Records
---
Amino acid sequence: MSPMSLFQVILFLLFATSAALAGDVDPISCGGGERCGDLLLPFPFHLNSSCGSGTNSSHFRLSCDRNATLTLPLGSAFFRVLEFLPSGSLLLDYAPASPSPCDPAYAAFSRPSSPAAALDAAPFLAVTPANVLRLYACEDSSLCRAGCDDVAACGRAGGAAKSGCCYPLALSDGSVWKPGEGLGVFAEFGCRGFASWVKNRSAAAGEPGVLRGIEVEWAVPRGSEIATCADGAVLVNATAVRGGVRCSCAAGLTGDGFAQGTGCSKGTSCSNGAQASGGRECCQGKFCSKKAVALAGFFVSLFFLAAAVSFWLFLRQPSKDIPWDVDPSCIPKILGRVCHARQFTYEQLDEATRRFDSEKTVDVVDGTVHAGVLDDGTVVAVQRIGYESREKLRLVLDRVELLSEVSHRNIARVVGFCPDSSNALLLVHEHFTGGTLEDHLRQVRGRVLSWYHRVNIAIELASSLMYLQAHETAPTFLHDLKSNEIFMDADFTAKIAGYKLAKPVAYYSSSHDQDVVCNFGHILIELLTGMRHQHPFDSVAPKVREGRLHEVIDPTLLTGKQLPAPNEEVRKVFELAVTCLLSAENGMCMLGVAKELMQIVRNNVGSSSKIEISLEDTFSSSSLLQMISMSPDSLHHHLPS
């Protein structure tokens, strides 16, 4: 018998045995009693996809993964179920996919996958007054309320100043929000985002008084099939869900009260591992009887036996080379579809780079970069990225797709691509002939950067780094940027090299953000002093603390010993740079850096007529907080010029 025939026989025996025993097993119940980890699902919530073909039942279908994480899908948003509350409510964690570096609980109102929009559209859920909101970037400051002392927000540990606007729903007077309404009403008042917290009713001594999450009431539609109550139960109206009802058992009875659920019975409730009446073990659902448990054990054993035999047969098969799941010949079609960039021929790029002249080569993490000029006069940087394995090819294609979404005036864009015959991709980036920031600071280029040019460059870089961190598809944390990777155009506008971003994405953690801030501190020190310091905290920080700014500032900016700007402005910029170097200790985030830098400049606008930054065209008072909720296509219009 061939291995494949043997495998088919085993499968036949498995299914035949299952069919023979199926008549002795109770049909799978959709009436509650299912578990996901420690959570017992009440009716009408269920995990079985075959439960209830009707629309109403599908609204209450949850999923439980192998880590016992219970998830409620609502449209394009997903919520983790933390607890089923006895009051007929759910405690949900909305877990933003791209959290704010400063407030991990931040969620935007405007995104398609916004938890607020998903909850507002759910016909069987409604937000309860138990939630405490922190609203961000609201145009109407009259929304602010008291009562958010326990809610954490962006700032240093230990009680630093918080941002946002507090709004406890329980204290609402009905002028803005009232029970039964969704969170979308706050977007109508110009709020860009929110964070939600719920009082921790079971908090012990030393535990936090609030939990991140949203408490929502659930109910079933009045008149629907699932709204039928069992004997001993009455139908009660929901508090906030319009047209919603629940079944409630009479006094002395326990259960969920639904005819299709566990109904009502005498004795102790089976929730939280209690004992049923008569001392019997409390058990609900399809695995309660000893017979069902024995059958479940038999099926599991049979499954592992089949899996073991299948694995043995697999090992006996002759080995074959694993084919690429992405055909390299299809790369032009794939890239043309995802990034809409121009496809060059190898001959065009060979001519543009003068046969990839080694004198104009920059070594980077992923390959090499050659400067060149196209036949139409466009200056480009051609990056060669190898993909010797299918995993690397997949990473390259994913990264190119992300790069094509980057749209910021201070980041070089992708111009085009060219597949190379030697398992490599030639990626063509926008490039500039004005030299690098390092060239200008070292005076390799003729003109000296003025104080206000340097401040403007710092603001542009801060906004670029914030833009990359706030990217909706894949936040990028650029923590190793150097001055020779920042180019200057004819107007002294800073441009981060595109090839700097063509590497694997670093997803968010607090340490990533602090690394970005520390790296920015090094660049800011270099901007101010004109030179790169290996240990700026030892060489620059002491003199800044002692007020000896003329000893550390770039000498080309001094007129005698006269500083190029008011002493207070220069001192604060230096102190901000030192604070960035200590981000691992003080928790400074990139959003805070950008805000403080803009505040320093704004406070000194009236002190000099030489300033070259148009504050009216850069940040509004709240746009830094709005950045997180903006799409990549619109975000750069609100960043510094």
---
Amino acid sequence: MLRGRSLSVTSLSGLPRWEVEELPVEDLLLFEVAWEVTNKVGGIYTVIQTKAKTTADEWGDNYFLIGPYFEHNMKTQVERCEPINDAIRRAVDTMNKHGCQVYFGRWLIEGSPYVVLFDIGSSAWNLDRWKGDLWEACSVGIPYHDREANDMLIFGSLTAWFLKEVTDHADGKHVIAQFHEWQAGTGLILSRARKLPIATIFTTHATLLGRYLCAANIDFYNHLDKFDIDKEAGERQIYHRYCMERASVHCAHVFTTVSEITAIEAEHMLKRKPDVVTPNGLSVKKFSAVHEFQNLHATYKARIQDFVRGHFYGHLDFDLEKTLFLFIAGRYEFSNKGADIFLEALSRLNFLLRMHKSDVTVVVFFIMPAKTNNFNVETLKGQAVRKQLWDIAHSVKEKFGKKLYDALLRGEIPDMNNILDRDDVTVMKRAIFSTQRQSLPPVTTHNMIDDSTDPILSTIRRIGLFNNRTDRVKVILHPEFLSSTSPLLPMDYEEFVRGCHLGVFPSYYEPWGYTPAECTVMGIPSVTTNLSGFGCFMQEHVADPTAYGIYIVDRRFQSPDDSCNQLTQFLYGFCKQSRRQRIIQRNRTERLSDLLDWRYLGRYYQHARYLTLSRAFPDKFHMEPTSPPTTEGFKYPRPSSVPPSPSGSQVSSPQSSDVEDEEDERYNEEEEAERDRLNIKSPWSLGRVPRGKKKLHDSSSFTMSSFCCESRGLLTDSQTKTNYLHSSSRF
């Protein structure tokens, strides 16, 4: 199944050749259906947007996306045009003649794929009739008060109608339709009920009920086989949505999901084992200069340092050159995204850094949107004070420089006692007095509407991280998405990520995890878990993820308290690294970006398409059901400069800088990069790996063995334990 018009996967350094039967894309039509086509709601938008170029390169003008019409999105993202394909043109014209409003054009993203957009409102008058069609097809009823589910029914009915019109005029071309998530699933159900000649794929990016259960702080993964699914869905008043999702799964010729951990979840929640796991990728762009991403890190780190100077004015008694910037970002799901365990680990990290009298300071950003009513006045004042001091310093510098210049022209060494006059000294004294503040630096940049009940702020109060002078861990909650037009922190998200040292995403429920994947592509180390699809993917593909800057916390096979201890060890170990060790680690992290490129991960989608064709049209396409196409996979080896034993670790484990001379001799960036490109190839298949508890890599391989013993000792020391744990109901 070789790509017709695509870039060969062998164009990626070190990736194995993959040659199987050719898929005749010129005789096929491919449709992808999703509520997030041109409509940014969540992660599915990123999946479709970043994958579009690879798919368009492969399928050319036979690739189409189907989504909802919103006027603003249409005006800003879509260029209208006439369909070239005759079957598409006829389908659009027919539906428009019957009172529907169907729009066709090119989505203005990389790859410029064709899009077909349906105006939901213009077809709402058909809702009652289409509810009857759905009931006849699968006996699922939708309550009138669930507006979202009703919109999805309209969208799905229009999709099924459109696909019928296309297949009626396809002139012998076979049609593949891939439906993303339950929002698009109604179209699949109706298409199969009407026996349309199409090959169908249903992809779930997260099960509906799974997300609800995890948000309720239930021990989800250890009780997957014990849930009464119907009862749980009914109690949450989503039973009809769950039935729509489950019907979609069982109607599809091929069922796929985005990660191995979600595949296990789907088998229990939706009662069908996924046929193919299709990991999410990104559109990876390499810089012409190998270390350009390191230069970008230095540039954007300086801008974050400017913000920190203003935010902590009057309390800036720590060295910014020895300050590390950590962050967590995403939807405000306190437990699902791991903000609870992260805050607990920060409390323990603060204790360790203070106890060991470390000169390292950690500033942690929480970029999670919440309800606010305005910027915090104290935060705005801090940035104003910083700018004022900067202007004063430049003014004095210019006067000083002019006097020095004039003295040198006269051939004199200036009298340093007279080079600054009394007015200059007065201005500088007033500037110093303006930096005095009676209060502590704020822990949030905005005024929170629900300050007293906000989970993050409530936890900060409990653990006592108030940005005191003695705290080595400082916390800043930024309850808005980042923007380059912000008066506080004028940076886009990508710029901010590049300027940080570590992204921390200890999620409990994360079907894939785009945030750590984006960090990896930018060369920024990250913390993830073995309950996220990204973490499981990296465990399978990288022999020692920690050496490559991917810290994987075990949240599946150990208690929350043990997981918190492990995260604390990772963070403390990262703080102990020298600057050179962090540079080496960033180089290694960035080299993993090939793993996340759609040019590589797109092969899983290719396999799913071929499989659905073989099931829908077995007389035209054939694939052995027990022998899916195999290819050589690869696993990044453990870097040669990382010793196999933690006790002897010098590069992989964080040590003080007195080993850097020996490090210089052992580490050669170009040689190591070349070995990674060649990599270790081992046979593997596109089929799923056996399930069960996998052997985890030694989580202590990146931490000092002495620290592991020491932190365990801290947990057993009764008096210290009280101050150290800040125990809570969950931990």
---
Amino acid sequence: MAMELSMALAAPPGGGLLAPPPPAPPGKEQQVAGVGILLQISMLVLSFVLGHVLRRHRFYYLPEASASLLIGLVVGGLANISNTETNTRTWFNFHEEFFFLFLLPPIIFQSGFSLSPKPFFANFGAIVTFAILGTFIASIVTGMLVYLGGLTFLMYKLPLVECLMFGALISATDPVTVLSIFQELGSDVNLYALVFGESVLNDAMAISLYRTMSSVRSNAAGGENIFMMILQFLEIFVGSMSSGVGVGFISSLLFKYAGLDIDNLQNLECCLFVLFPYFSYMLAEGLGLSGIVSILFTGMVMKHYTYSNLSDNSQRFVSAFFHLLSSLAETFVFIYMGFDIAMEEHSWSHVGFIIFSIIFIIVARAANVFSCAYLVNISRPEHRRIPLNHQKALCFSGLRGAMAFALALQSVHELPEGHGKTILTATTAIVVLTVLLIGGSTGTMLEALDVIGDENTSIETYEDNNGYIPPTYEEGTSSGGGLRMKLKEFHKSTTSFTALDKNYLTPFFTSQTDDDADDFGDQPQNQRQGFYDQ
């Protein structure tokens, strides 16, 4: 939980402590709560209206997420310098439990639920490479550079495990601003699928890495650290993924055989559908796994299998409901985060740590994108390789957001006071700079890289084979033999899974026909922040 604002008790001359002030009357507490909630709702309304005005006038230098963050910063700054009652101000403290249990689940579920299957599965191998291997590379590179910077006295020195914890939390990207402008200006669907798919899986990977590093730090040091770290990560990630997929499959069978798709049971049908994602999340948390990973894969499975077992009216309702819920949660997160950044106590005594951390995450992002793009490209035919301008756009889209901030707040309570405060301050600076500066320059960047204005590029390539484009490999291709062949086998296994899904899984878990499946695959692509979808 975020640091609560406390009032110091003055000591009288006799040496004892003054008696605490009498509690506020119940009516006063209700009034304070009402004022706090009213202010939150007012900021939400202002954020939505301002975002609409900015988009209507095509002013891309201040995207919606940046505007929401600024509103929170301004209101929080005014509250911090005013004589606002402490009770009112505490209504805006950023509590990690509230963020992880109530705000983040609908956002992550909608991310998985809104994935358009054709471009996602066409780029599935690349997305997994960037999200899993790339996040791991970025985390390790950042952590090691921060550790070496401390050893060489360039910046504040932290122990190795704490540096790796910082590398894990700061590797969580949140390119909502970039994706919003991608959607508005129109961009190559392959590039959009890569950025969106990476951001969906990246959050889950970063949380798993952070929890693994935190667990290693808590459990004594020794030569088994690296081995235990790998085992714990696999346990958290694979266990959470299995839990989420299992819940998704159970829900699909329930809706297939329970006969709920009749008029007088549609209310029950919708209620059950809405409860399953939270069931998945809480099940994973109760088992000591990652609820975020679990609910992400539940969303993907429920969209692919369970959704088609609903009645038409229920399909429309649940799509609109989760879309609305995630939009409200996402906007509130940026307001909430901005307010708390202005209110939180920060440690600005280690400016070098902040400056070099920014440099190191840029280096780590480049190492992540270019190394993973190289691996993807050597396994693809020439016409499907990721071009250099798309790789640069991927580098640029690595904004940091609420996930990194929430994990940094957790580190304040898990690490020694000076270390946690330093990490929180550096993370705060990185979040504000990336959201405001990089987010505001996204439109200019897209134009400079020539990746906009071609919204429908390559859409026709997804028409066959359930959305997956099987690569065409020629015999006797040049160098890179062993690694190239292994990567090709991975792509072939993806093709095999597509056939398995179409021939066995879809008929078993759904009641749709082949024509229904084709119609389902042609649904328009939704976006994480698509509140303004036309």
